[in-house]
Amino acid sequence: MLQNPFLRGLLVMAIFTYGLSSCSSDNSFKDGQIIIRNIQQLPIDTVAQSIPFTQVADSISYVKLAPTQLPVGKIEKIKYADNKLLVLDTRVSRALFVFSDSGNFLYKIDGEKGQSITDFCIDSSHTNLYVYYANKHQISAYSFKSGELINTIRIQGFFHNVDILGDDVFVLSRDGITKFENEPKKYNQNRICMFDKSGTYLKGYMNSPIFPYINYGKMYTVANNAGTAISIVRLYSDTIYAITKNSMEAKFNLSLSRKTDLREFYHSQKAQEANQFLQSGNFSGIWGPFFQTSQNIVFYYTYQSRVYLYWKSLTRGSQFTISYFTNNIDGIPDMGSIKQINQYEAIAVLLPLDILNANRATIMAKSPTPNHKLASLAEGLSDYSNPVIAIYHLKSAPKQILANK
């Protein structure tokens, strides 16, 4: 032991200085920190070409949902998987309805004891359907084929959205208006929390001190690429994040004419400032579907009456090709009515009956209904006693883009 106070002080100062130098030279990210070093900023004001919306989809099919015992009211989410349409009603029936892709009713899952279903997801093998009840702090597992209950999983905390990485890791997210009361301290008020299938907390990202709820905005999962176990999370900061079982990384940011390069924050070792900057972006656009296969990345973004299409081939090593089409082309409602995207294959769009032809085989090329009314209908402000869903199959890049490559 050093008895001399002066020598002890020198030793403490040396250890402290060494600790600071060690931390400042380490550019690696610990658990809970978001990787931002490789973020790609994409322009939105440099557009190569305008394309008709008919070039975006390989094919379009229209499905009129069969009547059920309970009315399908406020449709919050639509998912299309394994030739099944999953429709979540959060207001009227408070139930999850499952239909065949021809519109036949298969089964439904009710809210438990008056509790509305908050969200749902399907595992990568399409074996189990997971239904999340925020007020019950519970995930219920059902057979995706039959709808039979398998088991329940206790999830402490209050969240808004659920997704699953592969078949064994749940990713739950929440937006700015969040209840943190009575939840474990280890959650650290993270906006994104990961759990195993027993409900055990694994790790989290975006904690409240760095992302103040007052500036946060809404966050939810846009797409889940089950093949490579990557979930994409959308924020009002116009940034797409990729979440794997081991990390979370900011991948793409729409610059909206910004001049700042986000990577500068990383190189200057200001990760916290970078994350704060990502949360202070323009809240002026609407994200459409995002999907990724082994060959393509495609996503849509609505901004100032245009729907922008970003497409990149992963096999050809190309840059993003940017195109756009205007809202309501070919009779499709405003892109804000898009409720969900299948796992990188199709968009499911809710259509009001009054813009369909009587035989519902085709949609009117020019809708007589103004955009604002379509948007209102799509938000559930009208009668959905006989909802119709359009499925836009997106199995390849738009033909016009491919022709230019």
Describe the structure.
By secondary structure, this protein is mainly beta. The protein has a single domain (48-394), classed as TolB, C-terminal domain (Neuraminidase, 6 Propeller). It is built from five helices and 26 strands. A five-stranded mixed sheet has the order 1-19-18-17-16, with no helix packed on it. Strands 2-23-22-21-20 form a five-stranded mixed sheet, with no helix packed on it. The protein has a four-stranded antiparallel sheet with strand order 3-26-25-24, with no helix packed on it. Strand 16 and strand 17 form a beta hairpin. The radius of gyration is 23 Å and the shape is globular.
The first-to-last residue Cα distance is: 73 Å
Specify the CATH class.
Mainly Beta
* Gyration radius, in Å: 23 Å
Provide the number of structural domains: 1
Number of helices: 5
> Strand portion, in percent?
35-45%
Return the CATH architecture.
6 Propeller
Low-confidence stretches: 5-30, 210-218, 265-269, 327-344, 352-384, 399-405
CATH topology title: Neuraminidase
Q: Biggest sheet, open or closed, and with what strands and sense?
A: 5 strands, mixed
CATH superfamily: TolB, C-terminal domain
Alpha-beta classification: mainly beta
Q: Mean pLDDT score, rounded?
A: 65
